[in-house]
Write a structure and sequence with these properties.
Organism: Streptosporangium nondiastaticum
Keywords: Oxidoreductase
Order of helices and strands: HEHEHEHEHEEEHEHEHEH
Shape: globular
Pfam families: F420_oxidored
Protein name: NADPH-dependent F420 reductase
CATH superfamily: NAD(P)-binding Rossmann-like Domain
Structural class: alpha/beta
CATH class: Alpha Beta
GO molecular function, one term: coenzyme F420 binding
Strand order of the largest sheet: 3-2-1-4-5-8-9-10
Number of helices: 9
CATH topology: Rossmann fold
């Protein structure tokens, strides 16, 4: 039985500051699909921020060539080696190769923090439109294929053109981060914040990833109409 005196001595733990993020500067980041525009741009920005980065590709030679072009200490390896050597692995492969790539790397990605940034899109004469995978989203497909990995979703709305432009010092955008574990999403938010101008914002669990992935189709329409490289900002947080 708790007495009134006991109750006075009980203190609630202070609420965690939502913007208090871990130090991720010492983590190795692998980028699967790092020879494509989006993956290459992310690799460049993270390496420029001081992160150790390994580019992955199906062919080690292609990855090594892309890494050499980027410089900044970026390394290249085949996808399996990239996954093995990395603490965090960003999945930036084309949607049509998403499932096959992850199925082949299940063992190498076990225990890893995986960040899926793939957008399932289709294109026709009317422009881009969202596809809905059987699992609900690309991120949920990754989680189903990688049961021993910690899957999150982020970096969907970034312009590959801006990411790769060496004349641009900061990229003015927020990064929607989704996942099942706060510890994991905090790490991804911290990784996003390493890139000048960016902020990682928690945006829900993986079941909400489809809306985030689909919004890229709208941004493509914005960019075409206004000849821009639009990003997103979340206000009042």
């Amino acid at each position: 039985m708790t007495t009134s005196d006991d109750a006075q001595t009980v203190k609630k733990a202070p609420a965690k500051d939502p913007w208090e993020l871990p130090d991720v500067s010492g983590l190795v980041v692998g980028v699967l699909g790092g020879t494509g525009d989006q993956g290459r741009g992310l690799a460049y920005r993270l390496a420029k921020a001081g992160q150790r980065v390994i580019i992955g590709s199906r062919a080690a030679e292609r990855a090594e060539a892309a890494a050499g072009e980027l410089g900044l200490g970026v390394e290249g390896a085949d996808n399996a080696e990239c996954a093995r050597r990395s603490d965090i692995v960003i999945v930036a492969v084309p949607w049509d190769g998403h499932a096959k790539t992850l199925e082949g790397l299940r063992e190498e990605l076990a225990g890893k923090l995986v960040v899926d940034c793939v957008n399932p899109l289709g294109f026709d004469k009317q422009g881009a439109y969202a596809l809905k995978p059987e699992e609900g989203s690309a991120a949920e497909q990754a989680a189903a294929l990688l049961p021993d990995s910690r899957v999150t979703a982020a970096f969907h709305h970034l312009s590959a053109v801006l990411l790769q432009d060496p004349e641009i010092d900061a990229i003015d955008t927020d990064v929607m981060v989704l996942g099942e574990s706060r510890a994991d999403t905090d790490v991804v938010q911290a990784l996003a914040a390493r890139i000048p101008g960016m902020r990682g914002v928690f945006a829900g669990r993986l079941r909400n990833a489809h809306q985030v992935e689909s919004l890229v189709a709208n941004l493509i329409s914005v960019n075409r109409r206004y000849k821009a490289h639009a990003g997103l900002r979340v206000t009042d947080v």
